[in-house]
Amino acid sequence: MNLKHYIKNTQTSLNQAIKENINFCIKNTINHLPEDLKWAPHNLIAHPLMEICYQLGLTELSEHIHNITTPEDSNGH
Asked: What confidence tens digit (pLDDT) does each residue in 12-28 have?
């Protein structure tokens, strides 16, 4: 494996690890909020941000923002 290929693979792995860490931090933070506040980040922050992404043609990012800011129900789903 040449150096350029190694660097690209390392960068891809690092990007994936960063993405997973961000997702975990957001979900964990939201799910540890008091019950009456769990939907606030989703409704007040994520929905406007999702719309901006959608209008810019970033539909996958828009859906991802929606999914990671939706609180888990009491069963952990």
From this structure: 888 889 999 999 999 99
pLDDT at 71 over 90: yes
What span, in angstroms and rounded, lies between the C-alpha atoms of 33 and 9?
37
User: Which pTM does this prediction carry?
Assistant: 0.74
Cβ neighbour number for residue 20 with a 10 Å cutoff = 10
Three-state SS for 16-72 is HHHHHHHHHHHHHHHHCCCHHHCCHHHHHHHHHHHHHHHHCCCHHHHHHHHHHHCCC
Q: Are 36 and 20 in contact (CB under 8 A)?
A: no
Angle at CA of residue 54, ends 48 and 58, nearest 5°? 125
Let me know: does 72 contact 31? Beta carbons within 8 Å. yes
The number of C-alpha atoms within 13 Å of 40 and in the hemisphere containing its C-beta is: 10
